[in-house]
Amino acid sequence: MENNREKIETILKACDEKKAYSFSVIDISNISTIADYFIICSVNNERQGEAVADEIINKMSKIGVKLIHKEGYQTKRWILLDYGFAVVHIFHKDERYVYDLEKLWSEGTDIDVEDYGIENWN
Hints:
By secondary structure, the chain is α+β, with helices and mostly antiparallel strands. About 35% of the residues lie in helices and about 25% in strands. Interacts with ribosomal protein uL14 (rplN).
């Protein structure tokens, strides 16, 4: 976890700076080969979703972490950023509960975002 701690913190702080909310970090390393973590947040509208995604890409690039793949920029209702070690899911508030990734990946381990200095509000 220590190896990825700075990366996760960078992602969460980028989300927080753009006023995303309702953060979840799920360690899926023991149940999937997709990634080690899912990082999930909500936004209020499409423009905010794009701003959050752009901020994450910018901040991660500054610490030398390259984006592998991105999806969802067309509709901006569910933007996915794949960094290999983690997949970031930026959901429009109305879409998040439709897909309910937290329930789908409930066998993973929830990580308290407050350990990263982020206050989690819903």
